[in-house]
Design a protein that fits this description.
Oligomer: single chain
Largest sheet: 6 strands, parallel
Strand order of the largest sheet: 2-1-3-4-5-6
Structural class: alpha/beta
Distance between the termini: 7 Å
Number of helices: 12
């Protein structure tokens, strides 16, 4: 089945689009040529310029038109919503879900899939609790094609830099709560700064600024907000510049914080949902769940909808700050998280692609 499979994926700077492009890059590097059906428009501005790879992508798109049949093994990388259509009788849906339950419509769509793939054990447990289907887990890989260790650029001081990552979602990713807790403890402290790389292209500019102003009500010299970083090479530089990454969201994996820790950064990471598949006491400073909160009153989660209903994990601010101090201590002992670096070899793109191909074989 080396070349006789179809990838039904997005290719753009979003998390799903990055993952779709990574599947293509690994296929290209292995000398494969799968059929390619794009979900949404092709966007490659975030990638390094590589004309041969870009031409190969177009060849794969043309191959889909002349080669794909209803019997071709296929993997669709997409949300549960909009996954009612099928390209093949042998199709796996690789999807992501951050809540603790499924709606009836989500259950129905998932029941129609030939196979279901998720990135973490938490998703598997939520799905299998509601479905009469087996769910496969394929962990996500470190993106070796776009991320690599770089020497941190000197800023002229010894300030320890925290980096808050993930596209801005106050409810699911707990961004507002993290910012408030961090500023209360470290605000205007010249030993630390907080860089928030949380721009979200789905927010209007003024809407985003108004939401941030509701959290950061005073002026602090040691916090800054960076707009959405599209180019992977710039995002790599941003992650390399930080010392401690913060990821407290409800994730199916958490690619930004995962990549940062794999680059040798220390992490203050939530010990719930998808993080638990890769973050542990050796490579991260974990913050346990304190309770559950309803997924409601948010731009992306509205009560009573047909999709995305349920609850999220929350955390205790004191436990979060304690983990921040523990991460600071670890950084001062050794500014490289050697246990984090091991994630690069533990979660590879080669194994990722092989696992997907084996699932649809």
């Amino acid at each position: 089945m080396d070349n006789n499979f179809t990838l039904d994926v997005p290719v753009n700077p979003t998390s799903l689009g990055q993952l779709g492009c990574l599947l293509l890059r690994e296929s290209y590097e292995q000398g494969l040529e799968p059929n390619l059906n794009l979900i949404s428009d092709l966007y490659l501005e975030h990638e390094k310029k590589d004309p041969k790879f870009f031409d190969w992508i177009n060849n794969c798109r043309l191959k889909f038109l002349s080669n794909h049949t209803r019997d071709t093994p296929t993997v669709r990388l997409w949300h549960i919503n909009q996954s009612q259509s099928f390209l093949s009788h042998n199709q796996a849906l690789f999807t992501f879900h951050e809540l603790d339950s499924l709606t009836d419509i989500e259950k129905h769509i998932l029941e129609q899939q030939d196979r279901i793939i998720v990135a973490c054990d938490y998703n598997k447990s939520v799905f299998e609790e509601s479905l009469n289907k087996e769910v496969s887990v394929i962990n996500l890989p470190f993106d070796k094609y776009n991320f690599s260790v770089r020497e941190k650029k000197s800023t002229g001081d010894n300030r320890i830099t925290f980096c808050l990552v993930g596209k801005y979602e106050p409810l699911r990713k707990r961004h507002n709560k993290v910012i408030q807790a961090w500023l209360q403890e470290f605000g205007d402290n010249s030993e630390y700064d907080l860089v928030c790389v949380i721009g979200n292209q789905f927010y209007e500019d003024e809407e985003y600024k108004a939401s941030i102003r509701s959290v950061v009500k005073d002026s602090y010299f040691n916090i800054q907000f960076i707009p959405w970083v599209v180019q992977n090479n710039l995002y790599n530089e941003t992650l390399n510049h930080c010392d401690i990454v913060i990821g407290m969201g409800n994730e199916s994996w958490g690619l930004p914080e995962f990549n940062a820790i794999a680059l040798g950064k220390y992490g203050v990471i939530s010990d719930y949902a998808g993080h638990t598949d890769w973050a542990n006491s050796e490579n991260s400073h974990l913050v346990p769940a304190s309770n559950m909160i309803p997924a409601d009153n948010d731009k992306f989660f509205v009560k009573g909808g047909m999709f995305n209903q349920g609850n999220f994990f929350d955390f205790d601010e004191k436990a979060f700050i304690e983990s921040c101090y523990n991460a600071i201590s670890s950084y001062k002992e050794n500014n490289i998280n050697t246990s984090g670096l091991k994630l690069q070899e533990q979660y590879t793109t080669k194994t990722f692609l092989e696992n997907i191909k084996n699932t649809i074989a």
